[in-house]
Amino acid sequence: MSLEIKSRFPIFRAHPDLVYLDNAATTQKPDTVIERITEFYKEGNANIHRGVYPLAAQATTDFEASRDKVQQFINAAKREEVLFNSGTTAGTNLVAQSFALHRLQRGDNIVISAMEHHANLIPWQVICQKTGAELRVIPMNSKGELDQKAYSTLLSNKTCLVAVAHISNTLGTINPVEEMVSMAKQKGIPVLLDVAQSIAHYPIDVQALECDFLVFSGHKLFGPTGIGVLYGKEEWLAQMDPYQYGGDMIRDVTFSETTFAGLPNKFEAGTPNIAGAIGLGEAVDFLVSIDRAQILQNLKELQAYAMSSLLSIEGLQLIGRATNRTAIFSFALADIHPHDIATFLGEEKIATRAGHHCTQPIMDFFGLPATTRASFSIYNTTADVDRLVQTLRDIKAFFS
Fold first, then answer.
1. Looking at the domain 33-288, which fold is it?
2. Beta bridge partners of 174
3. Which residues of the chain have pLDDT under 50?
4. Measuring CA to CA, which residue among 62, 68, 67 is closest to residue 47?
5. pLDDT (0 to 100) of residue 3
6. Distance CA 2, CA 302 (A)
């Protein structure tokens, strides 16, 4: 199935020898997404919501249709709970500024985990510093698994929010978010889930999860860059004030006072990424059209094959060996610098990533300045793993 799926992605026709293993950073785009964005700019470009001429009306219809698609895709109760923005980072910052900042007081706390991407760490760190609140961190073990007992002790009647990733972009760990949300809910604590790394492969149902907020980026689920989603329960969004102001998010304006529009408009100031939202809707259509259960099974099998193959390389240190994990692998190889490894792999048409992956606390925990990361998706195969492993062996031999 991976090869059939791969044929729908034009980048692999342009680069037949490409082994693309940088999916945790961004995924490739299928024909249908690219064609839909091109079609909009060629045949349907107009601004939305206030234009009454046919092009503008159609653009508005298509833009809002994408909101409906996302609502159904994540099973939100209402379309108004789906807010478009520029990506996961923007969604997290909106919650930090419009929700947390006005609720936190000295003595309160926010709970995050030790494996968060900087985008789900720094906003809470800054808000805590501004308010005098405490940032509490769920510790993890040497396998890259969160300590659930420690998590339960961090929750208190002073906890205003839990913000945690579903899947670590560095370790590949799949966190037990269902249990973690449930534990928080027992104490009446709202929860934000970062599903940027899981949305493309794993089913997400916000009502079943009972999370209060959820964030993800379009470009990590085969859609365009510069578009993302913040889901929020209506009860919270209705109480929150916007922190960006401008056109299309108002009901009435005078020089002395402004009243804001209802949901979702009050959080979508200015001209949005219209083509991006339409492209995201097309990416959702693409995902709905494929057998996701089979894709997920293929990914699990690929994860197991890749892990055993990588560990067969003498001198390779894999960080993150959680029992429940996905096909994201960060590793060090002998004393070879990760950037050298990634450069050599690139010369062999194998795309990986090197650095701290916006998770410097993870690097500090494992005592490494950086790693090389290989991350897999629906168009990858065991042949890709074999090429990666053989090239890593060649690199090791070269530096030896």
1. Aspartate Aminotransferase; domain 2 (3.40.640)
2. 167
3. none
4. 62
5. 73
6. 11
User: In b/e form, how buried is each residue of 360-371, taking b as 16+ CB within 10 angstroms?
Assistant: eebbebbebebb
Task: Return the pLDDT at 1.
Answer: 60
Question: How many CB atoms within 10 Å of residue 262?
Answer: 11
The answer regarding whether domain 2-21+291-399 maps to CATH 3.30.70.3270 reads no
Indicate which residue of 128, 160, 211, 358 is catalytic. Answer: 358
Place of tokens 């503008």: 56
Catalytic residue check, 128: no
Q: Quick one: pLDDT at residue 400?
A: 84
Domain spans in the chain, listed from the N-terminal domain onward: 2-21+291-399, 33-288
